[in-house]
Amino acid sequence: MTSERTRERMIQRLVEQGITNVQVLEIMRQVPRHIFLDEALSHRAYEDTALPIGHGQTLSQPYIVAHMTERLLGAAAKLDRVLEIGTGSGYQTAVLAPFVKQLYSAERIRPLQELARKRLRQLSIHNVQFSLADGGLGWPEKGPYDAILSAAAPAKIPHSLKQQLAPDGVLVIPVGEDKQMLTQVTRLGASDEYDEKTIGAVKFVPLLAGVVR
Ligand code: SAH
């Protein structure tokens, strides 16, 4: 179920769904998605679907991970410092890390963060720093960021996230409650002005305040 053929089928599907960045496809071929799930679910890891990871949260669908990663790669001028909001299982973190110099990843649920940390260590991914915090506030001490990616949806884009973008920095974030839109925000140079465009309808878990220990 976690064989090379199963993984290859996932990559084929991503291509059919419109993912064209060969580096993203190659990384997703390499990263073992099944280790980011509970053993009882690992046989479903390469299916074209989001899957539960406990605490009411989900591992994002492969297409969404590919799509968001491809977006960041195409839109940001550089990816030296990147903030991820919603580490969850750590899968998106593992896919993004090879493209980034230093990745900062915030998660509000401690048990999820601990598992993700372990898995990334197991994969010898060492350029990630974790924070147990409300990522909706960003991580101001480590910013500004060339790019910010959120895997959880606020009702409105938090201004603190925009403010933590470096000049020409890019934020990709699902926005909305019942109906969500994946949205790309670009800081215009070093100014306090931002360009905003919607990319498409999506379904993410909500961005919530507070930390769960
Ligand atoms: N990319 C992850 C997605 C996990 S789901 C994966 O593929 O596994 C989104 C995650 O965002 C959940 O783990 C949830 O706990 C987390 N989250 C929600 N609101 C948050 C917040 N304000 N700060 C940090 N993490 C948050």
Provide a brief overview of the structure.
The chain has helices spanning 4-16, 22-30, 62-75, 91-96, 110-122, 159-163, and strands at residues 51-54, 57-59, 81-85, 102-107, 128-132, 145-150, 152-153, 165-175, 180-187, 194-202, 205-206. The chain is α/β, with parallel strands linked by helices and 213 residues long.
Write a structural description.
With 213 residues, the protein is α/β, with parallel strands linked by helices. The protein has helices at residues 4-16, 22-30, 62-75, 91-96, 110-122, 159-163; strands at 51-54, 57-59, 81-85, 102-107, 128-132, 145-150, 152-153, 165-175, 180-187, 194-202, 205-206. A 7-stranded mixed sheet has the order 5-4-3-6-8-9-10. The protein has a two-stranded antiparallel ribbon with strand order 1-2. Strands 7-11 form a two-stranded parallel ribbon. Helix 4 (91-96) links the parallel strand 3 and strand 4. Helix 1 (4-16) runs antiparallel to helix 2 (22-30). The longest helix has 14 residues, at 62-75. The radius of gyration is 16 Å and the shape is globular. It starts with a helix and ends in a 7-residue tail after the last strand. The relative contact order is 0.13.
